Amino acid sequence: MKRDSRLSNILHALLHMAEHQARTGSPMTSDQLAVCLSTNPVVVRRTMAGLRDQGLVASEKGHGGGWRLARPLDQVTLGQVHAALGGTGLIPDAPPVEAQGCLVEAAVNEALSDTYAAARALLVARLDSITLADLAADFSRRMAAHPAKDPVHAHLRKSHAS
Q: How far apart are CA 16 and CA 124, in angstroms?
């Protein structure tokens, strides 16, 4: 099963935005976020538009514009972010059908469907119990033990040097 990395990628971006806002007071542009995520700014804008529609981020147009968090970190759960991304991709709704018409596969898939639904409910409940502030605190603890001076911004400096 292919893992959907949209949730982890957008959480990565949101933590960068929070850190950038705290440090500079300014929003992050789609270009800056694209560097953080190793993607195209168009992908960033498309994803952030969905988060904006759910009230998790705000956009500012024009020179000096970009993306800001719309709420404090302790008021945004991972479940809300997951829902804003469409609420899919973590655990499939049902096992994939590989062999059309196979009675064994049909029986296995039927048996697993309830298990998948229960696992998805547990995962969503867990995501609802974790806030962006929890992630930021965990990140800070990890960075305190990290030997690099400023790994958070190292990739941003590299992209601006070229």
A: 23
The whole-model pTM stands at: 0.77
For residue 39, give the nearest of 59, 65, 58, 13 by alpha carbon. 13
pLDDT for 29: 92
Mean pLDDT of 21-44: 90
pLDDT tens digits for 83-100? Answer: 998 887 777 666 677 778
Q: Where are the alpha helices (DSSP H) in the chain?
A: 6-24, 30-37, 41-53, 78-84, 103-128, 132-144, 151-161
Residue pair 89/6 in contact (Cβ under 8 Å)? The answer is: yes
Distances (CA, A) of 51 to 3, 17, 68, 81, 155: 21, 13, 11, 7, 24
Angle at 30 between CA 26 and CA 36, to 5 degrees: 90
